[in-house]
Amino acid sequence: MRRLIALTLVLLSLSACALLPHRDPLAINVVGIEPLPSQELEMRFAVKLRLQNPNETAIDYNGVALDLEVNGRPLASGVSDQQGHIGRYSEDILVIPVSVSAFSVLRQTLGLSQTQTLDNLPYVLRGKLAGGLFGTQRFIDRGQISLSNPGAW
User: Fold this and answer.
1) Domain extents for the chain?
2) Domain 24-145 coded CATH 2.60.40.10
3) 6-13 contact pairs (CB < 8 A, 24+)
4) What is the number of other CB atoms lying within 10 angstroms of the CB of residue 97?
5) Which residues contact 87 (CB under 8 A, 6 or more apart)?
6) Lower CB count within 10 Å: N or C terminus of the chain?
7) Hey, which residues does 101 pair with through a beta bridge?
């Protein structure tokens, strides 16, 4: 009897996964960074992201979280309780405030080698758009930035 119940539960869970719609990943690009008012030991920036939805269904979200890693080390993070809607086969710009602590900047500085400059440092931006139990969309963007010229993203 136990084996029958276990087999039934396994079959039901597999069929439930098959009913979930397949979604292509969101296309995310950093399109700008602007300074925001800051506190003593932190800097604040508004990160602008272009989100493109390549799916046949719209995406509704009710929160955003970001983590920015530069040169293999954490640099900035941010959250926002923004709510929104990205229509099917459309795009939108999101602006998320992020914080950079003085200690993160110090870790970045200490992590640079003697010959490394602030140009063309690799970055990884990870984030998620909250959308309920099965609607959360995770995303990642990789590239290179120039910290000596912050406008050169």
Assistant:
1) 24-145
2) yes
3) none
4) 14
5) 53, 58
6) N
7) 42
Residue keyed to tokens 């960074």:
33
DSSP letter assigned to residue 82: -
* Backbone Cα Rg of the chain: 20
Q: Dump pLDDT digits (tens) for 101-143.
A: 877 777 666 766 544 566 778 889 999 989 866 678 888 888 8
Predicted TM-score (pTM) of the model is: 0.70
Amino acid at 129: L
CB contact at 8 A, 121 and 144 = yes
Maximum Cα interatomic distance, the chain, rounded to a whole number of Å = 68
